[in-house]
Write a structure and sequence with these properties.
Blueprint (H helix, E strand, L loop, with lengths): L4 H13 L3 H6 L6 H15 L6 E8 L2 E8 L7 E5 L13 H11 L2 E5 L11 H15 L7 E6 L1 H15 L8 E4 L11 H4 L9 H12 L22 E6 L5 H13 L4 E6 L14 H20 L2
Parallel strand pairs: 3-4, 3-5, 5-6, 6-7, 7-8
Antiparallel strand pairs: 1-2, 2-4
Helix pairs in contact: 1-3, 4-10, 5-6
């Protein structure tokens, strides 16, 4: 993986920001989970700052605190629900001011980022329930589904599929498109890439994924379709784009998820980016591959908006 000096430095800062996670998972750290999340969000916000021309504020979506990201230009009331990653354990909305800001500017849409509760204090299914509550609240507030899309990364990328399923099962309108970056879609970790990419993926490993899964699942099985959408009935979902980095330990599960969607007649696009790492999109504005991947996501969603009219 040949990164520019700038990208390599940013990746190192990201690794350093995540350094408190492994000790917290094993109980060997001195920080509480709240402190781990705060530090992670603070450090990533500094490494990947908000772009100019975007405002950030907080709102409440039926009890779920949510960051609202608004560019200077919003066309046709476009809305994006963005679900942040972090293994359902350590993510923070503040870590995503850069990525969601670039997303909002390119898409010319308001982006809503739910600050959902996380494990181990709030294990499965609480994070998923909180995000679904936020989606339901957006629709109840009058946001038109034909002007709404869903996107997310890692655990949030898996929740993109799960939230659409829950909306389908509840008889609610679906968004026009779902876009999943590096989804953590199989908590059994049975795919070959968990071994073949172990030590190559600079941001996670099979061992860390196992510890994250145990922390999140509580008494639930890793094959629960709400936790692992590769085992879910995904019929009838909106067109879905999945983007995976070829160096990811999660690569196999992303490919399997795309196969599952395609087999059940969901319009599916899978992109596998050679040499890219887990959620390389965070380097938008700093790395060409990140900008191009985000541009592809924006084009995919824009076509969804256009089809809905």
């Amino acid at each position: 993986m040949n990164l520019t000096p700038e990208a390599a430095a940013l990746l190192k800062r990201w690794q350093q920001a995540a350094s408190g996670i492994a000790p917290a998972l094993t109980g060997d750290g001195d920080l509480s989970w709240a402190e781990v999340r705060y530090n992670y969000g603070k450090e990533l916000a500094a490494a990947f700052p908000a772009p100019q021309g975007v405002t950030y504020e907080r709102t409440d979506l039926d009890g779920v605190s949510t960051m609202v990201v608004a560019p200077e230009e919003v066309i046709d009331n476009r809305t994006l629900l963005y679900i942040h990653g972090g293994g359902y354990v350590h993510g923070a909305v503040e870590a995503y001011v850069g990525l969601t800001g670039h997303y909002a500017k390119r898409l010319r849409a308001r982006v809503f980022v739910p600050d959902y509760r996380q494990a181990p204090e709030h294990p499965f299914p609480t994070p998923i329930d909180d995000v679904f509550t936020a989606y339901r609240a957006l629709l109840a507030a009058g946001i038109a589904p034909e002007k709404t899309a869903i996107s997310g990364d890692s655990a949030g990328g898996a929740m993109v599929i799960t939230i659409m399923r829950k909306a389908r099962d509840a008889g609610m309108p679906l968004p026009v498109a779902g876009v999943s970056f590096s989804p953590w879609a199989d908590l059994t970790h049975s795919g070959s890439s968990v071994q073949s990419r172990n030590g190559i993926d600079p941001l996670t490993s099979g061992r860390i994924l196992e510890r994250l899964a145990r922390s999140f699942l509580g008494n639930a099985l890793p094959t629960d379709p709400d936790a692992s959408p590769v085992f879910a009935d995904v019929r009838g979902l909106a067109p879905t784009l999945i983007q995976m980095g070829e160096n990811e330990v999660m690569l196999s599960s992303g490919i399997t998820l795309a196969e599952r969607l395609a087999e059940q007649r969901v319009r599916t696009t899978l992109e596998v980016w050679p040499h890219m790492f887990h959620v390389w999109h965070l380097l938008a504005g700093h790395m060409a591959e990140s900008d191009e991947a985000l541009d592809n996501a924006v084009s995919f969603i824009t076509r969804g908006y256009e089809r809905a009219h």
